[in-house]
Amino acid sequence: MSDGPLPWMLTHGSAAVLFLVLVAGGVGVPIPEDLVLLATGILSHRGVLPLPLALAMAFCGVLCGDLLLFLTARRLGPALYEHRRLRGLLPPERRERLARLYARHGGRLVFAGRFLSVLRGAVFAMAAVQGMPVRRFVLWDALALCVSVPVVVGLGYAFSHSVDRVTRGLGRVEHGVVITAVLGLVALVLARAVRARRAERGISPPPPRAAKPPRRRATP
């Protein structure tokens, strides 16, 4: 196993340590979130953490980190865009594009952003600056975590005997999760667009056919 944060977490990891690392990663500390989730699954397989506790801890840790980032961005407002890390990640043209996407899709953009490791923080910060309510952010982020957390923790649990191989293949798994999430999002948007177009045209689904009354038997 190569040197890095993963071996350290497997040696010193506990529920409290992993939770704090996930929260710290959510607010910008350069610790790969997926490695922490992998370590959580591996430690669960080794009997250090019961699997239900591992999943709950991972879910809450990531959600708390995301929420802390969201609240910080909301407090700073548009001044956040001048931060040295976000100036390169969110140039004016990309900022305008994200703002248009947010105006059109709202919470669905937060859902998709959770699977984009490069733009995740920028998408969450944009949602905060655009004035998304906290409850709505938590709802969409939690829905995305219901997909991502079990997948990555389960990957670490199932393949704990081959950590290096799992780590190398994590990018492909994340790519597959992104494709699945985007396809689901596209299907949802298309379904809503079709319903909206039908409503504009005044087209409603045909009423159910009334059941035919039973034939009366002729009396002798």
TrEMBL record:
What are the transmembrane regions? Answer: 12-31, 51-71, 137-157, 177-194
Q: Where is the VTT domain positioned along the sequence?
A: 31-157
Location in the cell:
Cell membrane
Q: Which terms are listed as keywords in the entry?
A: Cell membrane, Membrane, Transmembrane, Transmembrane helix
Reply yes or no: does the keyword Transmembrane helix apply: yes
Specify where it is mainly localized.
membrane
Entry GO terms, CC: plasma membrane
What are the start and end residues of every segment in region (Disordered)?
200-220
Membrane topology, from the record: Multi-pass membrane protein
Give the family, as the similarity comment puts it: Belongs to the DedA family.
Q: What is this protein called?
A: DedA family protein
Q: What species is this protein from?
A: Pyxidicoccus fallax
